[in-house]
Amino acid sequence: MKALTVQPNLVEQVRDAILGEIASGALAPGDRIIQEQLAQALGVSRQPVQQALALLRGQGVLHDAPGRGLIVAPMDADHVQHMYDMRAVIEGLAARRAAEQGAERAARQGRALIEAGRKAVAGGAVAKMIAADIRFHEFVYELSGNPLIAPTLETHLTYTQRVMGEVLVRDERPRDIWDQHAEILEAIAAGDGDRADALMRQHLTGAADFMVARLRAQADKVAAA
Question: For position 3, what pLDDT does the model report?
């Protein structure tokens, strides 16, 4: 067995850093990815960058460039709609199981996540808003007690960060979803699985409607230019 030469957490940090650049708009759809430049900017060798890029390619954030190399993938509104349709079903289940399995922990720890999310929105920093949103949903997965939910949704949460960044960067008044998160948390903490499931599905369906509408509007604007 060969010794490991790259720490997994370093690859994850590089991936998160690149994804952050894409979500913030610093790397736009169609931009070519230059490994050497990324490695130099991040102060790491090319190996973790190469592995991080492979992860992002597999998650649909990057595409093969004409000839060779990688580019930032264009946004696909249909793909986003399909992704949120699937998330609504699985995360509805997660919320139901969270109410059944983790009501006490939700009541004890959830309030801090809601406060952090509202603080991020008030601050207006896109990266912090995205991170707070993702953390809330990951908390629900943890509460569900189902170890298959988080890895099943990991790829889609990565793409979700990309979508959220695309919308937030261009939207003058970012949509504040933390009242919805608070309602979901309240249902989970109360042990009400039916309500938690329904609220989570409504939350994600509404998010899909909001984001897909803006992506289509942006595409129409570009096409008309």
Answer: 43
Query: Given this model, what pLDDT does residue 180 score?
Result: 94
| Packing angle of the helix pair 178-189, 193-224 (nearest 10 deg) | 160
Residue 176 zone, left/alpha/beta (φ > 0; ψ -120 to 50; rest): beta
- What CATH number should be reported for the domain whose range is 77-224? 1.20.120.530
How far is residue 10's CA from residue 51's CA, in Å, rounded to a whole number? 10
**What amino acid is encoded at 50 in this protein?**
Q
> Using the 8-state DSSP alphabet, how is residue 3 labeled?
P
Per residue in 208-217, pLDDT (tens digit) is 888 888 888 8
Where in the chain is CATH 1.20.120.530? Answer: 77-224
Enumerate residue ranges in the chain where pLDDT < 70.
Answer: 1-8, 169-175
Which CATH entry fits the domain spanning 8-72: 1.10.10.10, 2.60.40.10, 3.50.50.60, 2.30.30.60? 1.10.10.10
pTM of the model: 0.81
CATH 1.10.10.10 domain range(s) in the chain: 8-72
Token digits for 220? 């129409």
- The reported pLDDT for the residue numbered 218 is 78
